[in-house]
Amino acid sequence: MKAVLFVGHGSRLASGNEEVIHFIENMIPALDERFLVETCFLEFAAPNISKGIDNCVKRGATEVIVIPIILLHAGHSKLHIPAEIEDGKTKYPEVKFTYGQTIGVHHDVLTILTDRLEEAGFDTTSEHSETAILLIGRGGSDADANSDIYKISRLLWEKLHVKWVETAFMGVTDPHVDEGIERCIRLGAKK
Predict the structure, then answer these.
(1) Contact, 153 vs 101, CB < 8 A?
(2) Among the four 8, 34, 73, 144, which has the fewest Cβ within 10 Å?
(3) Structure confidence by residue, pLDDT tens digits, 120-148
């Protein structure tokens, strides 16, 4: 029996964790009905990955397919989740584990971004010659993940009719949000 174990990051805010659970509940009808489906979190919420694996095995899984619900491949997906899977293999040597990939730089990410812009009242089909969009990533110590945010920014720029799409981060790496806003203004953005 196969189980799909979705791994959300986890949030200190219950509403963020509820969004992950709701997202997965909405995906269940699209999955093979023979799959067991479990949800767990990296941090800040329960169950953790180890408990998620336990839940899959207790429900009869002989194979656990671990799917990270994380945008970019970085520390959590490169180190923490694989370490938990290795622990699961040690604890359950008779169970097969398969590890999926993060969402990554994908055209659907651009669709989500343009949808969010439209929800905010931004006309994504019109020319905006004096407008800058500042795409803000979480930021981290993983250079690949940080560069992927820049790639998404560039692809968004290619899709829209704005003068600039700039990139900034909430923390850990530069440029920070205030520096990103300042750069947009210095480049000449009026909006």
Answers:
(1) no
(2) 34
(3) 999 999 999 999 999 999 998 999 999 99
Written as one letter, the residue type at 17 is N
Residue 176 and residue 158 in one domain: yes
Q: Which residue has the tokens 């089909």?
A: 125
Instruction: Decide if pLDDT at 56 tops 90.
Output: yes
Same structural domain for residues 95 and 115?
Answer: no
Query: Structural domain of residue 76, as residue ranges?
Result: 2-99
Residue 29: asked if its preceding bond is cis (omega within 30°), the reply is: no
Distance CA 104, CA 58 (A): 31
Handedness of CA 7, 11, 13, 15 (dihedral sign): negative
Boundary of a domain, candidates 99, 134, 156 = 99
| CATH number, residue 57 | 3.40.50.1400
For residues 34 and 20, what is the distance between their CA atoms, to the nearest angstrom?
A: 22
Rg for the chain, CA atoms, rounded: 19
